[in-house]
Amino acid sequence: MPKSQFVCQTCGFKSFKWMGRCTECGAWESFAEEAEAPKAVKGRRPKGTGAQAVAFNAAAAQGASPLLLPA
Ligand SMILES: [Zn+2]
């Protein structure tokens, strides 16, 4: 089960439980849930979504049709 934590969007304070008010900066309801430790994702990446997906997104960002890319 993936662990997550809550990060204050105002000051960046992190807490493992949601808090209605940030104890650091005093902002109300400023916490947003974020997945913890990106390293946990390592080894779970599905096949075919690495470089290919990046190339597709890059081509799309440049306005090129992905259909014109060499296979
Ligand atoms: Zn805060």
Give a structural overview:
This protein is an alpha+beta fold. It has a domain at 1-38. It has 1 helix and 3 strands. It has a 3-stranded antiparallel beta sheet, with no helix packed on it. Strand 1 (4-8) and strand 2 (14-15) form a beta hairpin. The chain is elongated. The two termini are 37 Å apart. The relative contact order is 0.16. Bound molecules: zinc ion. Zinc ion binds next to loops.
Major β-sheet strand ordering: 2-1-3
Task: Let me know the average pLDDT.
Answer: 78
Overall structural class, as computed from helix and strand content, comes to alpha+beta
Uncertain spans, ≥5 residues at pLDDT below 50? none
Ligand inventory reads: zinc ion
Global shape: elongated
Largest sheet: 3 strands, antiparallel
In brief:
This protein is α+β, with helices and mostly antiparallel strands. The protein contains one helix and three strands; from the N terminus they run βββα.
Which SSEs are present, and which pair or pack?
Layout: E1 4-8, E2 14-15, E3 31-35, H1 51-61
This protein binds zinc ion.
Residues 8, 10-11, 13, 22, 24-25, 27, 30 line the site of zinc ion.
Record keyword descriptors for this entry:
71 residues, alpha+beta, 3-stranded antiparallel sheet, 1 helix, 3 strands, binds zinc ion
